[in-house]
Structures are given as structure tokens and as C-alpha cells.
Amino acid sequence: MLWSRLNNWLMSFSLGIAIVEEQLQQLREQGLVMESATRHLVSDEVFSSSAFALAASRQRSDASRCSHDLCAICCWNVRAYYPPPMVARRSLPQHRQAFYEGVDGVMRVIEQLAGVGLPASLWESQILPARVRDYSPEMLDELLATGAVIWSGQKKLGEDDGLVALHLQEYAAESFTPAEADQANRSALQQAIIAVLADGGAWFAQQISQRIRDKIGESVDLSALQEALWALVWQGVITSDIWAPLRALTRSSSNARTSTRRSHRARRGRPVYAQPVSPLVSYNTPNLAGRWSLLQVEPLNDTERMLALAENMLDRYGIISRQAVIAENIPGGFPSMQTLCRSMEDSGRIMRGRFVEGLGGAQFAERLTIDRLRDLATQATQTRHYTPVALSANDPANVWGNLLPWPAHPATLVPTRRAGALVVVSGGKLLLYLAQGGKKMLVWQEKEELLAPEVFHALTTALRREPRLRFTLTEVNDLPVRQTPMFTLLREAGFSSSPQGLDWG
To answer: What is the CA radius of gyration of the chain?
Structure first.
């Protein structure tokens, strides 16, 4: 038997549960025992170290049958994480065919993408709408305002964008990497903001300014306060309880600076602080919206954190591979993750093998994922129709340029994973790449009969998620778009003809 029920075991030795739980916790922290994957169903179930040998013998037998590539299938088809709306539904289990819906759907997407840093401009334009059928900004704001979800900045990208990660508040310790203290390079104003927020609670920008003034006896310049707040955001130190500041940031700089909003009434029970230097309306700019607070997450020990990272990667990618670990920037790299995966393999939690071509020889996956891959391998020998899906090239669901290399193409354009670029995929194959700015396109299936109209309809579906998008497509595979068979298909999908090529928007 691979596990023992704690209560029955204690009764047989007349031991107190508190004493044994303390000892088990110490062994767990040392990596000598592991909780069952069903701990959310049976709270008193644990793996014992004596079971590892039994599990290992079974795993060696199973692994011998999994030491070859099942097929040239991309792991994009394996998990619900990878199929946004309109994914190849026939390649999915029945319970994964529906789109996510409502606030619960947004929560599920955030759970799968917890800790993944993506450009702020993509979250609401491509990532969430591609996965949640009825997504609206109010859904994300609701989750942030209620404290169910938090966001953290990771890196500034120019003046109007940056890498942002979302986390479930309850499990933030598993996905959030605390910022390293860099007090020497922080300005006096940044340190003053941290000192104010360290007292606890969440504060509006005007309240932060007032509290700093009370501490130092000087007024705070509004533009300097805004600059200091955002510097701390990109350091991963502070956050806001709504997404509005990020929405304002990703708009054009001029719109973000001039857009203001007047408050028609004060919140009941919340004092309004006067500021003699700037009028109240200045603090209502969307760039400073919401209540700001420190990002304070109780850290996990190294063993717990690595185990949480492994669980998250299994949920995200389906398969843990060297490429996935590199993409996730896991501390210690693949060697440290491989050590943990081997322990999980010995306990029977996952299996090792070569499941997907192109991901190397050391791959780890759950049994259900492996069974699903076998089903896909069987289906690959049959003629099937898959619905094309358009994704941001920077979407984690796009495995090319990340887990797998970009397919070879004779054109001079080199595809890259950039915000603004799009890909269209179907049945685990890359069909189309639209470069950032929309001027150039690559198509991998040049025969017109292989380019069904739904390929370009999938592209325009993604483009319509960004109503303000305007561009002119001039080249396809290094040729003027008018000289390609794609010209007519793109016009039928929603592009309009112009002297330079095809206009969108």
C-alpha cells in the first residue's frame, strides 16, 4: 500500500496526532515524505518514505513503456490552459470543451497563469478575452477589490507598458517572488512611501501624500509622487486594489496624462484629505487610481516553493521539461527541478518519459496527461478537422519561440514573441504569424487549398479584441500582399483594400 491513513496508524501505536503531525512536518520540510496529491480530498493522507521503493519499482516498469516519443504532438493541445476560445475542440476532453465564463472563469485563468509575467497591455486585450467568453473589465476589478486576486509588477517596458503577474491571494506565496531589498538605489520619496504603507492598510494616493507631508513637514509634488509609486510597482514592492492604473498606463501617454475623473461624493466613513499644492482632481487621474499597499506575502521554505512551482507547471504546461523550466526562470534551473521531479516520480505522483517530440528526453507528466497524449497520438493518424485559434505571440499558450523553436521559413522576416504580434495555430501546427505593427505576415501553408477561410477569420477575431487597432498589411512571405492568394481571403475576413495593401481598422 502506497499510503496510510494517519488516524488509523496513530490508533495502532496509541500516539497523539499533534505529536506525529509535528514530526511529519519536519520530515516534509526535509523532503523525506510527501503529501498525497489527493490532500484536498483526504486531509489525513500522506506518502511515507518506505513506500518510495515500491513506487520506484512500479515507475521503472511504467517508464520503460514511455521512453519513446508518443508522436510529434505539441503539448499545446494537452491542457485547458492552452486552448483559449475556438481551440480545436475535438482534441479536448468533453469537460474541457466549453469556454470559461464569468468571474469564476477569470479566477480559473488566473490560477493557471499565476505568477506569469505578461505585458499589462495584453492581459485585457488578448489573454483574458481569449479564454473567458463574456470577459469584462469589471470581473477583474471585482476580484482585485475583494482581495481574491492581487497583481504585481515585474519589469518596466518603455513608458506605457510593463510585465505584470496575477496571483490568487490565498496561494500568492506559491507564485509571487518577493522583491529584493534595494534601499541604496531608492529615492527618499520612495522610502517615505514604503514607510507610510508599512504601517498597514491600503491608501489612496492623496492620503499617501498627506501622510508623507505629516511625517516630513513638506508638501509632495504630484508628478514626483506618481513617478515614485510606479518605480516601486516595477520593483514588485507595491500594488493597487484595481486594474485602472494599468489600463491608464497602456493607453497613449497623452491620454493617460489628461484623462481625469471627478468624484461626486465621498466614501462614507473615509475622510477626504486636503492638499494645498494640487487640486483634488489631480489625484483622480487613472494612473493613481485605487488604494495602494505593500506586497507582503509570507514566503515558503525552499522545498515547499519548489513543490508548488512543479504543481503550477503541471497545471500550465501539462509536461515539465527543460524548456518549460527555462521559460519559467525557475531558481536553480532544470537540475533543481529535475531532482524534485524524480522524488515525485518515486512517490508515484508523476511519470518520466519522452512524451512530446522536441522537448528532450527528460519529461515529467501526470498519468492523466500521458493518457490524453496517447489519445492524441491515435487521433493524429486520422483525418480530423481542427478549428484554428489566434493568440498573441507572447501568450504562454504559444509554444513557438518558447518551448519549441519557430518553424523554418524562407522569408526574411524572423518571428519573435512580442506584444502586438499574433499567431494562428491549428491541430498543433503554426499556420500564420502577423508581426508587431501589422505590416508583415508569414504563412507556413502556401497552397491556397490548405488555407481555409476560418484561418483568417480566427485572425480577425483576435484583432477585434483591440478596437483602437489600426495598421496596413503590405507583405506576406516577402511578397506584396496583392500578389498572394491570401489577399482575397483576408478581404473576406474583414480587411479592406487600399493602395498600399490591406487596411485594418
So the answer is: 26
